[in-house]
Amino acid sequence: LLREVREAEQAIIAVVGPAVIHTGAAEHLRRLVRGGYVSVLFGGNAVATHDIESALYGTSLGIDMETGLAVPGGHEHHLRAINRIRACGGIRAAVDDGVLTEGLMHALVETDTPYVLAGSIRDDGPLPDVITDTIKAQEAMRPWCQKAGACLMMSTMLHSIATGNLLPAAVTTVCVD
User: Fold this and answer.
1) How far apart are CA 1 and CA 9, in angstroms?
2) What SS3 string covers 80-144?
3) What is the pTM of this model?
4) Which of 37, 63, 78, 96 could hold 32 in an S-S bridge, CB 3.0 to 4.6 Å?
5) What percentage of the chain's residues is helix, strand, coil (to nearest 5)?
6) Residue 25's CB: how many other CB atoms inside 10 A?
7) CA–CA separation, 151 vs 130, rounded Å?
8) pLDDT tens, 20-74?
């Protein structure tokens, strides 16, 4: 069980998609990150972009995270978020510069929790931290998969399948979709 895992044990991989942000569940994942339970996070451009959009504008895909209503001009927020991070030079630089002060990506940077953001053909932007070469993204993921003790896969079939293809058969997986 996840509650029985101790920090010194094998790596726990969190594989997350943008629905974690859209549904407001990111705060729970942030608690796991801040508690030291997540060794590495795998995701794509979308989860990082929408988390940063939420942190900067209070929206996800232009929908107000508090009211659930569309915000006028909100459809531009994810692109504005990408551009703000690009202007800083990346996610870590945006945190260091005080531009990004909350959210999942902020928590990862603040706790020095590694992350691998793998790109796809449908990405907007993408953010500077996204590895757009799929072979290089797989190479970045593979060492974490080889030492994983558990893998929590949430709301991303694309990245969950990619991770599952790299995991040893003995790794405990929990899939939430």
Assistant:
1) 13
2) HHHHHHHHHCCHHHHHHCCCCCCCHHHHHHHCCCCEEEECCCCCCCCCCCCECCHHHHHHHHHHH
3) 0.91
4) 37
5) 45, 20, 40
6) 16
7) 21
8) 999 999 999 999 999 999 999 999 999 999 999 999 999 999 999 999 999 999 9
